[in-house]
Amino acid sequence: MEGPGLQTPPDDAAAARYSFLFPIGYSNSSECGYCRRTRSGFSYYAIATSLTPAFYQKLVDRCWRRSGTLLYRPNQRHSCCPHYTLRLDSTQFRPTKDQRQAVNRFNHHILGDTYAREAARLHPRTRAEARRRHNVFDLLERVHESEAGVLKGPPPAPDHAFTVTLEPDTFTEEKYAIFENYQRLVHREPPDKISRHGFKRFLCNSPLERGSLAGPDGRERRLGSFHQCYRIDGQLVAIGVLDLLPDCVSAVYFLYHESIHWLNPGKLGALREIALAREEGYRWWYPGYYVHNCAKMRYKIEYKPQYVLDPEDLNWYLLDKEALALFDKGHYVCLSRKGVTEGATAPESTSHPPSPEAPLSTPPQHSSNSDDEDQDEEEDEETSFLLTSSMPGIPTLAEMEALDMDGLVLRSDFAEGFVLASHLVVWESESVGQVGTLKSRVAELIAAVGPDLMGEVCIDFRKRVGA
Ligand SMILES: [Zn+2]
After folding, report:
1. C-alpha 14 to ligand 1 mean position (Å)
2. CA of 346 to the centre of ligand 1 (A)
3. Ligand 1 centroid vs 81 CA: distance in angstroms?
4. What was the pLDDT predicted at 182?
5. How many whole angstroms from 235 Cα to the centroid of ligand 1?
6. Ligand 1 centre from 187 Cα, in Å?
7. Cα of 85 from ligand 1 centre, angstroms
8. Which ranges carry the N-end rule aminoacyl transferase C-terminal domain (predicted)?
9. Rounded to whole angstroms, how far apart are CA atoms 391 and 178?
10. How far away, in angstroms, is 347 Cα from ligand 1 center?
11. What is the distance in A from the centroid of ligand 1 to the CA of 311?
12. Packing angle between helix 173-181 and helix 196-203, nearest 10 degrees?
């Protein structure tokens, strides 16, 4: 791959290999989605206009996540609720009794007694099969067991017809009806805060490019953002919003109609996604950030074995008893050093229900005249400049000053095609340490994604439609 160091800008045909990012900067969230504190969590933010799945995979493996087109990497050191990236190895997954029961209960609800009785009569299990079924819970077999299409004929028909389809993440009124119901009745959001615009913005039309990849076993894996749609008797009842990346099924959000709440849809969805990771060869399932001090997040670590991404060395560590003890002990945890920072800023418990996931946590206000209460009008440079923020896993200011970024590729409304950073008039005169300059902003973005990925990024300064 070409990258820094090239003399002439790449031609338009090269566009497909870049991910297009607009740097927003390092700032304080206006409100924490978990403890509802204001201005208590720092992250680096960027807007993605287009992302290749391979590039986004690398970002999620460096603590990034996305909420619609907004990408962010939290500073675990400066946060009321430090966010850690988790992943589960689907090939090693062993469901708990509770998880197994949820699947069995659901299958029984769909198939019904009559079907079960007749199926047992028409397709009796051998003694060995019955014993195996009693002793072994085959996740892939069980999650598909009640699906129309895999049922063995002849009739009787089951009580309900259940289907699951992986669909593009486009907006439909059918999907919006589920979102509206879920946000209002399950998530208890005020109705005036729920809109088609919000649904589209957070959960539809992601910047991830859709594609496919042949795995080492020759199987084609789908890549991109999808809605996994669950229907009972033709009615949409639940949606899993998924990012399918080269090495993972990344769970973005899960929403369902309150009428099926009693069936434990969240659990069923998670198991289904783990099964997808296993059967299609993605291997890893990413359940989203883990926030240790948030009780509502604990369900994520009931799926085991789970690994946590260390924000400093960016390696994965088994989230076992020993690791959890570190999280109990401190506020900021670094597993590679087994280091803990005592929690002076750990939030008190609150009666507010925490937002379930990132899409609904409040992104920062970017306009200078936002209607935030001005608690701290001026953040000093120390806290609003990524390169002096002591954010884990980020190069230092000195390292960024020493980095050759001349070959970086940019796009703007003032030029046709790609432009090299070194061709910009201001590039020579500005320095990385001059906070607020173009060069400094670009350096922050490159530091946040990692200098080794510079050749995969196009800094996109074009005016965004709807921005
Ligand atoms: Zn918080």
Report:
1. 41
2. 8
3. 4
4. 97
5. 37
6. 18
7. 16
8. 174-310
9. 38
10. 7
11. 18
12. 100
Residue type at position 374: D
Going from the first residue of the chain to its last (467 residues), give the mean pLDDT of each consecutive group of 10, the final group possibly shorter.
62 87 92 83 95 98 97 94 96 97 97 90 90 93 91 80 97 98 94 97 96 86 98 98 98 97 97 97 96 90 96 96 92 88 47 37 41 44 82 96 96 90 92 95 98 97 74
- The alpha carbon of 71 and the centre of ligand 1 are apart by a number of angstroms equal to 19
User: What's the confidence (pLDDT) of residue 6?
Assistant: 58
- Taken in order 61, 322, 96, 232, the sign of the CA dihedral is negative
CA 89 to centroid of ligand 1, rounded, Å: 28
Find the 385 Cα to ligand 1 centroid distance in Å: 21
* Cα 308 to ligand 1 centre (Å): 19
How many angstroms is it from 355 CA to the middle of ligand 1? Answer: 11
Tell me if 459 sits within 8 A of 22, measured CB to CB.
yes
282 alpha carbon – ligand 1 mean position (Å) = 32
Residues 6+ apart with CB under 8 A from 429: none
